[in-house]
Amino acid sequence: MKKFIKGVRFAPKNYSDEVEEKIQHYKKEGYKLPSRHLLRTEEQLAGIRESAKINTALLDYISANIREGMSTAEIDHMVYEFTTDHDAIPAPFMYEGFPKSVCTSINDVVCHGIPSTKEFLRNGDIVNVDVSTIYKGYFSDASRMYMIGEVKPELQRLVQVAKECRDIGVQTAQPWARLGDVGAAIQEHAEKNGYSVVRDLCGHGVGIKFHEEPDVEHFGKRGTGMLIVPGMTFTIEPMINMGTYEVFIDEADGWTVCTDDGLPSAQWESMILITENGNEILTE
């Protein structure tokens, strides 16, 4: 019989006894563990999955309509219209002052590019479109790379390796692994191909808030960092640079992150759920 202490409410568990046993084992071993509120309930996961469906459908819509000659402001308009037509909210809009509904990052822009009526997609460009959705209070997040017109082979290769880095990160993010394992696997693949991994930005927990714990770095050392536990939801979104990993923020707008050496950067982002047997890709 369960003993109840006056004035204390026991929260219902949203994971199996086997998971609880493993959590207690790793806790005794001194591992860094996620806070219990980061382990999603079935109700939360139902809402997160619905948000993720809209987010993925939005990227599919962009994939079908993005074209040479369009302004990045047109992409922003597409994102706003599609999202609101699905009774959802673009999460980036006015988040900490960000002025648009989507991030559009071209060539040497690593991330957080602000759409503009004066910025157009040109033949040979590579562009990252990063969309995030709030649906009934639940958040989702993903980005894809697009190659505009005739893209040079070296840029095509950068885009492909960046995608491989994302996929390797997803494959490595298994229950009871460490976040350092994920970062190390990504870094190894990028550097093996002659590229660098941005270190000043990272993936993140997402689902109940836009940005939650943990930070998911895309470089690191195996066997270090937080333990990956079933029920966690977070993004894997490595930013892979052709040159140095060093970046800077454009002082003119306070948002746009660019490579320090002016060489191109590429990024793919997925959001995953850690399960007891592996992981589930929620957005890509």
TrEMBL record:
Protein residues bound to a divalent metal cation 2: D141, H204, E237, E269
A GO MF label: metalloaminopeptidase activity
Binding of substrate, residues: H112, H211
A biological process from GO: proteolysis
Pfam families found in the cross-reference section: Peptidase_M24
Function: Removes the N-terminal methionine from nascent proteins. The N-terminal methionine is often cleaved when the second residue in the primary sequence is small and uncharged (Met-Ala-, Cys, Gly, Pro, Ser, Thr, or Val). Requires deformylation of the N(alpha)-formylated initiator methionine before it can be hydrolyzed.
InterPro entries recorded: Creatinase/aminopeptidase-like, Pept_M24, Pept_M24_MAP, Pept_M24A_MAP1
Protein name in UniProt: Methionine aminopeptidase
Catalytic activity: Release of N-terminal amino acids, preferentially methionine, from peptides and arylamides
Entry's transmembrane regions: none
Subunit relationships: Monomer.
Sites where the protein binds a divalent metal cation 1: D130, D141, E269
Cofactor: binding details: Binds 2 divalent metal cations per subunit. Has a high-affinity and a low affinity metal-binding site. The true nature of the physiological cofactor is under debate. The enzyme is active with cobalt, zinc, manganese or divalent iron ions. Most likely, methionine aminopeptidases function as mononuclear Fe(2+)-metalloproteases under physiological conditions, and the catalytically relevant metal-binding site has been assigned to the histidine-containing high-affinity site.
Keywords, comma-separated and alphabetical: Aminopeptidase, Hydrolase, Metal-binding, Protease
Enzyme Commission code(s) on record: 3.4.11.18
Cofactor(s) annotated in UniProt: Co(2+); Zn(2+); Mn(2+); Fe(2+)
Family: Belongs to the peptidase M24A family. Methionine aminopeptidase type 1 subfamily.
Residues in Peptidase M24 domain copies: 47-276
